[in-house]
Amino acid sequence: MIGVISYLVFFATVAAILGIAVLGLNLQWGNTGLFNGGVVASFGAGAYGTLILGGTPQEGHLGGFELFYPLALLGGMAFSGVLAWVVGKLTLRLRHDYLAIATFGVAVAFENVMRNATSVTGGAQGIRGFERPLRDFLGSGFAYNLVFLIAVVVVLAGVYVFLERLTVSPFGRLLRAIREDETAARSLGKAPDKLRLTAFVTGSVIIGLAGGLYSTFYAFVSPQDVLPILTFQIWAMLIVGGAGNNKGAMAGAFLIWGAWTFSGWALSRFAPIEAQLYTGSIQFVLIGMVIVGMLLWRPQGLFPERLVVSQPGGGSREKTQAEGLT
Amino acid sequence: MAEPLLKLTDVSRYFGDFVAVDGVSLEIRSGSITGLIGPNGAGKSTLFNVIAGDLPPSVGRVLFNGQDISTLAPERRFAAGLGRTFQIPRPFKRMSVLENVMLAPLGQSGEGLFAPVFSRARIREEEAAIRKRALEILDFVTLRALADQPAGNISGGQMKLLELARVLMGDPKLILLDEPAAGVNPALTEVLIDKIEELNREGKTFLIIEHDMDFVMRHCDPVIALAEGRVVFEGSATAAQSNPVLLDAYLGAPVDA
Fold first, then answer.
1. N or C: which end of chain A has fewer CB within 10 A?
2. Phi, psi angles (nearest 5°) of residue B27
3. Domain residue ranges of chain A, discontinuous segments joined by +
4. Pairing of strands B67-68, B59-64
């Protein structure tokens, strides 16, 4: 029994961390229409940044600054933000799939740099020897994981509340207008470039926060954590949950992470032995099918975006949803 | 005569070797409803885009309200008092009709990233005022009942009215309308004309591109005609109707008879 609970705590922690990343992507794609194909670069920047800044001295690579943990985490987020600012500045003129291709390329380059810049990132070995905050106080067993889960859920809730307020604010309205039609927004005196950059950087900082928490949780990060599959998983979470809906984004994170771990378990348990060799690949195929299937049959996601956000005009219908509009 | 509201001096626009607008000089009188006509390919849309700021002029100057706006970015022109609509309407489809209109006012204090967290009371107050104004304007353009509908769900004609409503939120001096009657059912066209004339009586100036000669002759004065990138006629609607050059441009005169 304690094993199951312990596992559930572990599962929920990872899902909640990924939920934060999905919220960040939702700000970029769901609200602003920025097709970020390099989610994992922001995630990795936060993960590496946090461990390098907050870790104990290690042989062979940069790090060991032993910063006070919250500062290390903020540093990781800042690293992610700076990277996003540079990428955003360079790709500001790109739209849609072109932006996706460029950012995907950035993420692949990021992974390669992490893998090869051994003196900075520990190369393929990754960064080890990170002491998790409050470990002396809480030990490293179940109690620690439970407290960590609570902390992650508090952060998730904080990010959610921030983004919900943003969505219903004039700023959120502006982002949606940019998403819907830049030319029209421009004709009404709005400057899209600055807004796109703001949304891109803010979303990336949030994704970086998720990355920092992720590497803190495992007290380890390596190039294996910044593979493109993570980008696709986070995208699947947003598409299944419902782009443009923050609640949907979080629900999608738990659903897809649940489906991912369950499929891994089921394949290793029930699949014929020859197929088990390919468990990872089969899971990749499954996640692709989920994305495609969702886009074909329910593109608005399980929780569609609310189209009347904050300012009902007193018409007849209470809430008008995206159903049948896409 | 008073300074014209909009003044173009020797404006040309080239696309490579092709001359789309060729040395156009014209003036739009404040308080007028000026019609801009011309056959397909005459350069109307290019000229319209030069005025709206989507295309900078290759040569020449555009003066608006005494300010040189020749190279001013399109998003700066709304603040300068220049509003425009689109030939094919561009509503923000997955936003409500009301939100479409509430977006438009400039300098909203809630448009900053952290404003929604730090200055909520002020934003609430401002939003209430913007909302009230937006509903009044929606009332004016007869779209009030559709306020909560996604803008992508309303008809093409209603979208044109919505674009007018959005523009009105900025209280512009000059409103550019790109083919307001195209593809709109006659009943809605009548509504649109009513609104244009009412706004004009209140002092708004309009520049309207329109293919529908009947529309132009009945509602625009003066009329400016373009052909092959040049102004071929400028004068009252009555004079336009009997002008041989204009009839040639429209009906296609035999080249060398």
1. N
2. -130, 140
3. 2-228+243-254
4. antiparallel
Shortest CA gap A160–chain B (Å): 13
> For residue A318, what pLDDT band results from cuts at 50, 70 and 90?
very low
CB contact under 8 A, A307 and B95: yes
Question: Do B90 and A172 lie within an 8 Å CB cutoff?
Answer: no
The region, left, alpha or beta by phi > 0 then psi within -120 to 50, assigned to residue B65 is left
Q: What Cα–Cα distance (Å) separates residue B195 from each residue in A214, B34, B138, B140, B165? A: 58, 15, 12, 8, 10
- B25 Cβ neighbours under 8 A, 6+ residues apart: B8, B9, B10, B11, B60, B231
CB-CB neighbours of A311 under 10 Å: 21
Cβ separation of B116 and A325 shorter than 8 Å?
A: no
Residue in chain B nearest A31 by alpha carbon: B94
Smallest CA-to-CA distance from B214 within B171, B250, B161, B244 is with B250
Contact between chains at B95 and A183 (C-beta distance less than 8 A): no
How do the residues of chain A divide into helix, strand and coil, expressed in percent and rounded to 5? 75, 0, 25
Distance, in angstroms, between B109 CA and closest chain A CA? 8
User: What is the predicted pLDDT for the residue at A323?
Assistant: 38
Q: Is the pLDDT of residue B254 over 60?
A: no
Per residue in A9-36, pLDDT (tens digit) is 999 999 999 999 999 999 999 999 999 9
Task: Give the burial class of B246: count Cβ atoms within 10 A of its Cβ; 0-12 exposed, 13-18 middle, 19 or more buried.
Answer: buried
- H or E stretch at B241: helix B237-241
Q: Considering the entire predicted model, what is its pTM? A: 0.89
Question: Is residue B96 a contact partner of residue B89, using CB atoms and an 8 Å limit?
Answer: no
Q: What is the mean pLDDT of residues A281-306?
A: 88
pLDDT at A162 over 90: yes
Instruction: Please name each of the domains of chain B with its CATH number.
Output: 6-91+166-251 (3.40.50.300), 94-153 (no CATH)
B156 burial via Cβ count (<10 Å: 0-12, 13-18, 19+) = middle
Q: Once rounded to an integer, what is the mean pLDDT over residues B146-160?
A: 91
Residue written as tokens 């990754």? A126
Mean pLDDT of the A62-74 span: 82
The 8 Å CB, 24+ separation contacts for A291-298 are: A291/A232, A291/A235, A291/A236, A291/A239, A294/A236, A294/A239, A294/A240, A295/A239
Q: What is the pLDDT of residue B200?
A: 92
